Amino acid sequence: MIEAGNDHGQLMDDVYRYQRLIYDITRKYYLLGRDHLIAEMAPKEDAHILEVACGTGRNLALIRRRYPGRTLYGLDISEQMLATARAKLDDEIALAMGDACAFDPKALFDRENFDHIVLSYSLSMIPDWRGAISHATSQLARGGTLHIVDFGDQSDLPVWFKKVLRNWLIRFHVAPRDGLEGILHEMVQTERLRVQHQPLFRTYAQYAHVTVA
């Protein structure tokens, strides 16, 4: 296993040392669109699926329930979050500590690549979020898909709501990536990728999937 021992990993451990204990109960009210992402996956029966920044393992548990028989993997930079995920999931789902921008799938999971990779409300907490996207797409098999859900730009919601939401998110070191759609379309110009992007819940959230051609 590769140790993620860097400042961001320590920050995430500090943020979630106690928050992880109530994370799933509280986040279901505002991490909207996660179930939409899972429904959109439709993986083949022999698919290998990785969630980067898997947190408490909530999504992996639901993916397994909806798509039984697929091989699942989880990666997180926070040992605190992984402790919760390990308690929730059994040994059939491989979990490891690693950096979203630099993980080595061969070293961590003995895999060369994956059919699906999930980034669920993680880009808004990863400092080099563009690097995380680029690294994830480089770990996809041909025809594989990267699925992203995160906060949107809230442009169709009242200004006061956006202001309150973002001021609150700052407390958790969360920064919505308003430029996500543009960055994804820039990648299409230089790499063999297909991109689809859509706002969810009146731009509260955004969902995208990136497929290797």
Descriptive overview:
The chain is α/β, with parallel strands linked by helices and about 210 residues long. The chain is about 40% helix and about 25% strand. The protein has a domain at about 5-150: Vaccinia Virus protein VP39 (Rossmann fold, 3-Layer(aba) Sandwich). It has helices spanning about 5-20, 25, 35-40, 60-65, 80-90, 105-110, 130-140, 160-170, 180-190, and strands at about 50, 70-75, 95, 115-120, 140-150, 195-200, 205-210. Helix 3 (about 35-40) packs parallel to helix 4 (about 60-65). The chain starts with 6 loop residues before the first helix and ends with a strand. Residues about 1-5 have low confidence and may be disordered.
CATH topology of the domain at 7-151: Rossmann fold
* Low-pLDDT ranges: 1-5
| CATH level-four homologous superfamily name of the domain at 7-151 | Vaccinia Virus protein VP39
Give the % helix. Answer: 25-40%
What is the end-to-end distance? 31 Å
Q: What does the radius of gyration come to?
A: 16 Å
Residue fraction in strands:
15-25%
Strand order of the largest sheet: 3-2-1-4-5-7-6
Number of E strands = 7
Average of per-residue pLDDT values? 88
* Level-2 CATH architecture of the domain at 7-151: 3-Layer(aba) Sandwich
Structural class: alpha/beta
Q: What's the quick description here?
A:
This protein has about 210 residues and is α/β, with parallel strands linked by helices. About 40% of the residues lie in helices and about 25% in strands. Helix 3 packs parallel to helix 4.
